[in-house]
Backbone:
């Protein structure tokens, strides 16, 4: 494994934008996040483990989504082995946001203590046709664009939440010196295209369910999932595609940054490219299944959008093993 030493742009003086002031009860949540941001990462991960289990116990819907998604991808035996890990990791992912969003960028980037595959970034930069970073809901997905922005400009696709206070906090945490946000609409797509034409990087969560009319029903771990096609369309620009995710290290030691090429060149029709991207996401998840956000409702049905053929169905604890559970972690 190669080790790299970097100088972060902005240095230790880099700081966050101030958050707006909100009335009760929103201000209490922001205050809580501010307090949490001062805790060591190891403490946040311990508290996050408790939060993960509390959410699991108190939310039947969350519990059902996590159980069904894990069974589909991992099979019954692997689900039983990985469930406790996945529950705790989900909670860690929630609380570590306080440090990632509200601490200085240089401090956040310094938590990346191991890097694998940085030579892919260097090669793609030399090509000069832009870089398309694809980051699934795996590991600490919030830190990927933050870290990458310390080396070069990056524009990331962003869908604002409904809550105004949460939107302000997220934007304050994400919009850094070289990290630009592109709304998940036509103007945002144009921003992504312009960035690639300038030879810059763009990033997105390719396993995020798109709005109705903006995706295709494609296979994801053996079940139809409404899949975004934007990433597949951006491949047409000739940009280098890099799969990237940040693995949480034990005891709050930081993160291991993984950058990988797709297992095969992404080509074909829009649908074929989007399907291959789904397979690439599956490939990453199988590398560290305990850190995937299994509680995310990946198989939700958007209003006005229905999968062709059989609709998604629930699965039970005795579901047959398939996907990663039956092929030893190879590609689906």
Residues:
């Amino acid at each position: 494994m190669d080790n790299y030493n970097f100088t972060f742009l902005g240095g230790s003086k880099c700081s966050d934008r101030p958050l707006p002031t909100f009335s009760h009860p929103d201000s209490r949540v922001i205050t809580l996040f501010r307090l949490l941001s001062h805790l060591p990462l190891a403490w946040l991960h311990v508290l996050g483990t408790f939060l993960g289990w509390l959410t699991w116990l108190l939310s039947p819907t969350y519990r059902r989504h996590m159980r069904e998604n894990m069974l589909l991808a991992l099979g019954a035996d692997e689900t039983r082995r990985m469930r406790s890990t996945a529950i705790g990791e989900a909670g860690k992912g929630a609380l570590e946001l306080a440090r990632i969003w509200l601490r200085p960028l240089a401090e956040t980037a310094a938590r990346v203590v191991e890097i694998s595959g940085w030579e892919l970034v260097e090669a793609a930069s030399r090509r000069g046709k832009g870089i398309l970073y694809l980051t699934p809901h795996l590991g600490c997905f919030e830190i990927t664009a933050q870290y990458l922005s310390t080396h070069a400009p990056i524009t990331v696709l962003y869908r604002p939440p409904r809550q105004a206070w949460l939107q302000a906090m997220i934007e304050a945490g994400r919009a850094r010196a070289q990290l630009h946000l592109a709304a998940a609409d036509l103007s945002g797509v144009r921003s992504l295209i312009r960035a690639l034409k300038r030879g810059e990087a763009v990033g997105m969560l390719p396993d995020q369910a798109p709005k109705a009319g903006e995706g295709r029903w494609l296979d994801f771990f053996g079940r139809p999932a409404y899949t975004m096609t934007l990433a597949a369309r951006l491949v047409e620009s000739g940009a280098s595609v890099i799969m990237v995710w940040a693995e949480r290290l034990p005891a709050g030691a930081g993160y291991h940054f993984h950058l990988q090429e797709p297992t095969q060149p992404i080509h074909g029709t829009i649908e074929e490219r989007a399907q291959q991207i789904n397979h690439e996401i599956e490939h990453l998840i199988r590398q560290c299944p305990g850190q995937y956000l299994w509680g995310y409702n990946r198989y939700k049905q958007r209003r006005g959008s229905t999968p062709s053929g059989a609709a998604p169905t629930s699965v039970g604890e005795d579901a047959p093993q398939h996907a990663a559970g039956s092929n030893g972690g190879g590609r689906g």
In short: Residues 1-16, 309-332 have pLDDT under 50 and may be disordered. Residues 23-303 form one domain. The radius of gyration is 19 Å.
